[in-house]
Prior knowledge:
Layout: E1 29-35, H1 38-51, E2 57-61, H2 68-78, E3 93-97, E4 101-106, H3 115-118, H4 121-124, E5 130-134, E6 148-154, E7 160-166, H5 168-176
Bound molecules: adenosine-5'-diphosphate and magnesium ion.
Amino acid sequence: MSVRKARRNTGARDDSAPRRLERFEGRRRSVQLASDDPARTLEIGRAIGRLLPAGSVLSLEGSLGAGKTLIAKGICAGLGVSDEVLSPSFVLAEEYSGAFPVVHFDLYRLDNVDEIERIGLFDAIDGRAVVIVEWGDRLGADMLGADVRIVMEFAGERSRKITIDGGGNLLDSLERSAA
Ligand SMILES: Nc1ncnc2c1ncn2[C@@H]1O[C@H](COP(=O)(O)OP(=O)(O)O)[C@@H](O)[C@H]1O
Ligand SMILES: [Mg+2]
């Protein structure tokens, strides 16, 4: 017997535009999306950014040029950030403001795990700011405790495989949205 509940059609909700989540909930799972164009990666990021609740911590992983900064730009756009989002590679952290404060880190140049103290990574995780960490896997053994993990992989010059791991409610909404 199917346990799937019939979709209620109240007419009050636009299913094409899922609302921002209040928190992550539901069993954690992952989805894989294919992107064959930078614009598509941006759009996927935007769809994610529109759903993120305050305080979300994201780890963006994948090799150089895989598209971490590009998807971060989309995520920021979906969070309503209007400033130009740059790669924080040289400065380790950039701060923006959108629906919530957004702090964007890049740990590529991190030599020593002690440095994360200096750059204020754990201070940034305050339950309100959305914290986006490129190369979050550099912290090892999931020190970041990211709510959402996004892994970008090359699948061709302009194609990427994007694996998003997170709370079931995020992925359900994401699958219902443009992504
Ligand atoms: N489908 C795609 N998705 C993301 N980036 C792509 C795609 N196709 C080509 N690119 C290019 O790959 C590069 C990704 O760069 P960037 O986002 O800075 O990578 P990273 O931050 O992972 O080092 C950009 O130059 C972008 O235009
Ligand atoms: Mg980058």
